[in-house]
Amino acid sequence: MEHPFDRLTPEVILDAVESVGLLSDGRILALGSYENRVYQVGIEDGEPVVAKFYRPGRWSDEAIQEEHDFALELAAAEIPVIAPIVFRDAPANGPGSDATGSMLRHAGFRFALYPRRGGQWPELGTQEDREWMGRFLGRIHLIGGRQRFEHRPSLSPQAMGRDSVDYLLDSGRIPDYIGHRYERIAGELLDRVEATFDAVGTPRYLRIHGDCHRNNVLWTGAGPHFVDLDDCMMGPAIQDLWMLLAGSTEELRSQLDDFLEGYQQFADFDYREIRLIEPLRALRMIHYAAWLARRWDDPAFPRAFPWFADATYWERHTAELEEQYWALERE
């Protein structure tokens, strides 16, 4: 079966970039992205741009525009987030092109162009760097709390957990001999996750990055900046903090203290949310497996994740979910 991205040829990519009035020099470099397709495109007599082509059918136009508006709002507040370029009165290049605003269209694809920014993934190995990152997130959440997303998802055990398990059980991806055990363990784990959410109460939901791990942050001498808000959502502040932690239990606690030392210089933090770290980890584990299953018809996924098709993956995954259940029981 042909996948929609099969139509995204080099000619289409270059034509899309030139539809806004830029002149490409023909150089295209594919950048690491599976959910969307992202390319660095060379520009004659100028700096390269980064072209992000959205996965067809994933987001509504309104959801993409909210992503862009959030990034632009942060950038306007001098927060180092790479925001899309906004084009005004650019010449459209043929039928099916829309060359105005930040969400652009060409040949049936929605795309956006961004300035290229360098940097490296952060190690966050020092207290100073962690406090710096905390201040960065505190500033983002201060802005994020000023209004709500209307067209983007809200983090919930139902959406990330129950719906993901239901999809996997219906998908035929889980081998029959593991299916019943997976269903039982995932169900018990989600019972525990939901009980913890109930015990914590209703945390404040605000506009957050949503997928805040180190691969989505670039670090330079000027500090951190985000390169991708594709998964921004409504959710609790802790969702943007816990994936930056690494190490033993004691190291995690010490690192979180450092992040919060910087964070609380700009935004309040509800310490009840710390109890959600392990439930959120459980939800991410389940949701990640469902994400791979949902994308398996995209040829890029079997090439990049061949182990997902092996029965041994589901044995390990089910065992990891059971371990996570006991981690929640120990909380």
Q: Helix and strand layout, with pairings?
A:
Blueprint: H1 10-18, E1 24-31, E2 37-43, E3 46-53, H2 61-76, E4 104-106, E5 109-115, H3 127-144, H4 157-171, H5 176-200, E6 206-208, E7 217-220, E8 223-226, E9 233-235, H6 249-263, H7 277-294, H8 300-304, H9 311-329
Antiparallel strand pairs: 1-2, 2-3, 3-5, 4-5, 6-9, 7-8
Feature tags:
331 residues; 5-stranded antiparallel β-sheet; two-stranded antiparallel sheet; 9 helices; alpha+beta
Overall pLDDT metric: 94
Termini gap: 47 Å
| Main β-sheet, spatial strand arrangement | 1-2-3-5-4
Count all strands and give the number: 9
Uncertain spans, ≥5 residues at pLDDT below 50? Answer: none
Number of helices: 9
- Regarding quaternary structure, what we see is single chain
SSE succession: HEEEHEEHHHEEEEHHHH
Structural class: alpha+beta
